[in-house]
UniProtKB/TrEMBL annotation:
Top-level class of the enzyme under EC nomenclature: transferase
Serine hydroxymethyltransferase-like domain mapped to chain residues: 10-385
Keyword Transport: no
Natural source organism: Actinocorallia longicatena
Protein name: Serine hydroxymethyltransferase
Keyword Transferase among record annotations: yes
Listed InterPro entries: PyrdxlP-dep_Trfase (IPR015424), PyrdxlP-dep_Trfase_major (IPR015421), PyrdxlP-dep_Trfase_small (IPR015422), Ser_HO-MeTrfase (IPR001085), Ser_HO-MeTrfase-like (IPR049943), Ser_HO-MeTrfase_PLP_BS (IPR019798), SHMT-like_dom (IPR039429)
Cofactor: pyridoxal 5'-phosphate
Pfam families to which the protein is assigned, alphabetical: SHMT
Amino acids binding (6S)-5,6,7,8-tetrahydrofolate: L122, G126, H127, L128, E246
Main location: cytoplasm
Listed EC numbers: 2.1.2.1
Length: 419
């Protein structure tokens, strides 16, 4: 049963309530390995469902365009101060609706249409909003892209420097959506200073690891940090931008009135709750356990003949190249989903296949770590992944794995659900 319970919703709209309950059970019964997903605490769930959703609050604390902000202003201020303290940033904006608008704010703050931005290529692990052609960021700006070395699967910073010197971008993005290795923020900062570019660190995937001390921080190196507030940070679906004092005003103006109107106050409150949770010693232990689980799973997968991009992981994320298994990513992901293992198919560097039918799988350990799984469970998880990928055409075997997984997970409580 969903927790908190939803009796009023059930009475008012039983059809929708049944779908919510079904999703809660699905999340409980499956090993969730999508690298951008997690479980929020019950406190975060409760904050997102409050009467704060009723209130409009265009502007910033103390400078609103609507009256009645006596409680909303302190809530947003609390979230801001907690973000600054947790990450050691000069300034924080907690209003962006999601990660993509947060990145768009950096463009609006520092670029004019047609000017040059440099980011990681999407097939190499970057994000759509780092200048990929199908995104507005690739259509409205002159985008140049760096990748990874074919022999190591890691960013070649000498190539990044050469490209930056040649193209002279005004903004450089580091970070991405499928980057399994530590981001060298000092090296990127040195390159950005050399070409007089603003360095934006997109830490959406690793924000929780940074908060917990399990990944180096870009503070002191990057001018701007953008992040979602879910993923490893284990908050609601929202975003933040943190900056040096120098760039605070430009970012705030880009978010409002540049890109959006009233913030979602229920989300802001839930972000404040998540940031408080992330400031604890328990969360720091959690962040380090995420990495320990990812490394153990990577080793177990390698032992079973899986080819991992860059040979392994330094964070929560693993990228598998299935070429050697002679199976494509999409059918493998679908088979794994039936087997009770949720992840996503993904392109891999230098992928010869199309994006909607790529060669890879992307997985992460943040959600299973929240459930309480440890390194001791990773060899069995790798065995299930191996068997499911090989048994894509054997539904009875996939169903048996799913039953075994559900039985295992019964012993690991899920925030937001009671069996």
């Amino acid at each position: 049963m969903h927790q908190p319970t939803i009796p009023t919703l059930t009475a008012a709209d039983p059809e929708l309530a049944a779908l919510v309950e079904g999703e809660a059970k699905r999340q409980h019964d499956k090993i969730r390995l999508i690298a951008s997903e997690n479980y929020v605490s019950r406190a975060v769930l409760e904050a997102t469902g409050t009467v704060l959703t009723n209130k409009y609050s265009e502007g910033y604390p103390g400078r609103r365009y609507y009256e009645g902000q006596q409680f909303v202003d302190p809530i947003e201020t609390l979230a801001i101060e907690r973000a600054k303290a947790l990450f050691g940033a000069d300034h924080a904006n907690v209003q962006p609706y999601s990660g993509s608008p947060a990145n768009l704010a950096a463009y609006l703050a520092f670029l004019r249409p047609g000017e040059t931005v440099m980011g990681m290529s999407l097939p190499m692990g970057g994000h759509l909003t780092h200048g990929w052609p199908v995104s507005a960021t690739g259509k409205w700006f002159s985008a140049v892209r760096y990748g990874v070395r074919a022999d190591t699967g890691r960013v070649d910073l000498d190539e990044v420097r050469d490209l930056a010197r040649k193209e002279r971008p005004k903004v450089i993005f580091c970070g991405g959506t499928a980057v399994p290795r530590t981001i060298d923020f000092p090296a990127f900062a040195e390159i950005a200073r050399e070409v007089d570019a603003v360095l934006v660190a997109d830490i959406a995937h690793i924000a929780g690891l940074i908060a917990g001390g399990a990944h180096p921080s870009p503070v002191g190196h990057a001018d701007v940090m953008t992040t979602t507030t879910h993923k490893t940070l284990r908050g609601p679906r929202g975003a933040m931008i943190m900056t040096t004092a120098e760039h605070a005003s430009a970012i705030d103006k880009a978010v409002f009135p540049g890109l959006q109107g009233g913030p979602h106050n229920h989300t802001t409150a839930a972000i404040a709750v998540a940031l408080k949770e992330a400031s604890t010693e328990a969360f720091a232990a959690y962040a380090h356990q995420i990495v320990a689980n990812a490394k153990a799973l990577a080793e177990a997968l390698t032992a079973r003949g899986f080819d991992l991009v860059s040979g392994g992981t330094d964070n929560h994320l693993i990228l598998i190249d299935l070429t050697g298994k002679k199976v494509a990513g999409k059918p493998a992901a679908q088979a794994l989903d039936r087997a009770g293992i949720e992840l996503n198919y993904n392109t891999v560097p230098f992928d010869p296949r199309k994006p909607f039918d790529p060669s890879g799988l992307r997985l992460g350990t943040a959600a299973i770590t929240t459930r309480g799984l440890t390194e001791t469970h990773m060899p069995q998880l790798a065995a299930w992944i191996d068997e499911a990928v090989a048994a894509a055409d054997a539904p009875e075997r996939l169903d048996r794995i799913a039953a075994d997984i559900a039985a295992l997970l019964d012993g690991f409580p899920m925030p937001g659900y009671t069996a």
